[in-house]
Amino acid sequence: MDEINPIRDRLIALSIEEDLGFGDLTTELIIHPSVLGKGVLLAREELVLAGLSVFKKVFLALCPEMAFEEYAADGDLVPAEKSVCLIEGALSSILKAERTALNFLQRMSGIATLTRRYVEKVRPYPVRILDTRKTAPGLRWFDKYAVRMGGGFNHRFGLSDGILIKDNHIAAVGSVGRAVEQVRMKAPHTLKIEVEVEDLAGTEEALRAGADAVLLDNMSPAQIKEAVNLLKGKVLIEASGGITLDTVKEVAEAGVDFISVGALTHSPRAVDLGLEIVQGDVSP
Predict the structure, then answer these.
(1) Do 112 and 159 sit in the same domain of this protein?
(2) Are residues 249 and 273 both part of a single domain?
(3) Structurally, how many domains does the chain consist of?
(4) Same structural domain for residues 260 and 126?
(5) Other CB atoms closer than 10 Å to residue 175's CB: what's the count?
(6) How crowded is residue 223: how many other Cβ atoms within 10 Å of its Cβ?
(7) Is the pTM of this model over 0.85?
(8) What pLDDT, in 10s, does the model give residues 166-223?
């Protein structure tokens, strides 16, 4: 997470600019820049931590001398009321960076926490929980990193990462077979071809067309089981569309290889993390 990453660093800079604008009027009227202080990051509920390095980089962007003492790491299950990190440095910079840093960390940890819940539901089964491209615009790198910290896996980062023939591609050319044929003629032989289907007829057509993977979209658990019986051992099988914590175990039991869940990133709940200014020693 500490590697050189221009996308991450540019987004952090833009987010600071968005919040800080021409300055923090309140802080600058109350706190002299020379005053030092401490802040403790506190988990107010149980959560899976994700984005601590991003959190720290927000503060360092405003004060390179900021110091940190970490009591947890990304991927850790953090209990409620646990201190996660101590921050020491210019008090005015701590206050100016606080909200932007927390916005990143609360969203990323929310995604990681939700992902962990899905992963735990299917742990007995040989299946991977995947994210999708349904991420917040501009935040895809952060969102997909958070999924990994929760124990999930990444689907395509972007459209250039793989071939996935979806319903609108099929509608544009007329059939699953035609879409696969066109891709086979033009794509490098090293790339797998995945086809999205919505029913058993589409499943059979994708198999006949020579797809390498089939995405079962918005099928009921009963339909998924029928599709798996047709496909198992012949292609990779992914299920997606409307899968919730209440249904994901049943989908896994059907025998698919992957379950992609858009809700991991398109509608996560931000977890409750807070930053409190403190005096004296702080114990984790």
Answers:
(1) no
(2) no
(3) 2
(4) yes
(5) 13
(6) 17
(7) yes
(8) 999 999 999 999 999 999 999 998 999 999 999 999 999 999 999 999 999 999 999 9
Tokens 């996660």, located at residue: 84
The band of 56, judged by pLDDT with boundaries at 50, 70 and 90, is very high
Please state the rounded mean pLDDT for residues 108-116. Answer: 98
35 and 135 in a common domain = no
**SS3 state of residue 110:** helix
Residue 86 DSSP class: E
Which residues are part of the catalytic machinery?
99, 134, 166, 196, 217
CA 155 to chain centre: 10
Q: What one-character DSSP code corresponds to residue 43?
A: E
Amino acid code (one letter) for 15: S
Q: How far is residue 130's CA from residue 152's CA, in Å, rounded to a whole number?
A: 6
AA letter at 49: L
Assess if residue 24 is contained within a domain: yes
Is 284 inside a domain boundary? no
Q: Where are the alpha helices (DSSP H) in the chain?
A: 6-20, 25-30, 52-62, 91-121, 140-149, 167-173, 176-186, 200-209, 221-231, 248-253, 263-266
102: containing domain:
6-118+269-278
